[in-house]
Amino acid sequence: MANQSELIARLPKAELHLHIEGSLEPELMFELAERNQVEIPYNTVEEIRSAYAFSNLQEFLDIYYQGMAVLLVRQDYYDLTWAYIERCRSNNIVHCEIFFDPQAHTDRGIKFECIVQGIASALADALEKHAISSRLIMCFLRHLDEQSAFETLEHAQPYLHLLHGVGLDSSEQGHPPGDFARVFSAARALGLKAVAHAGEEGPPEYVYEALDKLKVDRIDHGNRAMEDGKLVARLAKEQMPLTVCPLSNFALKVVDDLARHPIPQMLNEGLLATLNSDDPAYFGGYLNENFMRLARHAELSDLDIITLVKNSFKAAFLPSEDIQARLADVDRLIGD
Ligand code: ADE
Ligand code: ZN
Predict the structure, then answer these.
(1) Which structural domains are found in the chain, ordered by start?
(2) What per-residue confidence (pLDDT) applies to 136?
């Protein structure tokens, strides 16, 4: 393989941590604002991009929730999702697991069915036209209360066939996972998988809560778990997947330098870490860019890259025969 960029580009990958609203590029934001006659506080695409300078998660979230106000009708959700599917094609992503934040839309008066059907119909077309498989994960906003999360789960009841899991996102500090134990328990009883953002800005204790109180199948981010040796040993022993997002971590100052990103240490400790883009329209790059910039700055080896790609399939919510088939595809490709 000529170089690492070529290796990264050629490897088929899964992406497991992608907020569909965080893939809203400024160009599409402008187009939808015009189409829907929604006022946005920017005059040009460049103005939007220059507003994307964040010191922490909350500064990003304020802009992220404001941006999605241009999404109003089912076709908007379809177009947003289809634009991400085009990025999957150019990044060689063959399987994606997508988050959406229904409360950020229903609280503006958008119908749940319009959100979920718009996203799901684009995902169905992705499978049919490009053989890109997917899973849809509904996130609860942790800055809102438990009752609102229960109402959202209620809205989802007619659409459970389109959903594979529930997640927990938004402002982490001060909103521990345990606050949502009952709604996660109700979701798991419906057969849904469970994931939660934990240890992005919040302490290792939040990762323990996600494991023990929410009984998650994966941890989203998990960076701060590295502060607690016992927790690291447990995550390694249980092979609990971590969906880690390097460019997001750098943009939100979770890490101050990609050269000091915890991924190499996570791999050394035997953790099932994966790379993901989180909110690529806001953080400066899609999945291949996350691999390339991390590989360059944190000096990943080719073997590290292959391990991360294989982990993305091992951690996917796919039947085990599909996982084995995807791993065999990777082996065939690196055998060339
Ligand atoms: N919602 C969208 N992106 C997020 C992130 N990185 N952390 C928490 N909530 C989010
Ligand atoms: Zn996220």
Answers:
(1) 2-335 (3.20.20.140)
(2) 98
Query: How far is C-alpha 3 from the geometric centre of its chain's CA atoms?
Result: 27
Q: What is the number of the ligand closest to the CA of 247?
A: 1
| Residue 4 · residue 302 · CB < 8 Å | yes
Helix axes 112-130, 74-91, angle to 10 degrees: 30
Contacts of 114 (CB under 8 A, 6+ apart): 73, 74, 77
Q: Is 248 in the pocket of ligand 1 (CB under 6 A)?
A: yes
Residue 22 CA to ligand 1 center (angstroms) comes to 9
Ligand nearest to the CA of residue 279, numbered in listed order? 1
187-234 pLDDT, tens digit per residue, is: 999 999 999 999 999 999 999 999 999 999 999 999 999 999 999 999
Active site residue 86: no
Nearest CA to ligand 1 atom 1: 170
Most confident range (mean pLDDT) of 1-5, 41-45, 246-250 is: 246-250
- Taking the C-alpha atoms of residue 227 and residue 56, their distance in angstroms, rounded to an integer, is 19
What does the pLDDT read at residue 229? 98
Pairing of strands 273-275, 242-244: parallel
Q: What is the pLDDT of residues 148-196, one digit of tens each?
A: 999 999 999 999 999 999 999 999 999 999 999 999 999 999 999 999 9
Distance linking the first and last C-alpha atoms of the chain: 9
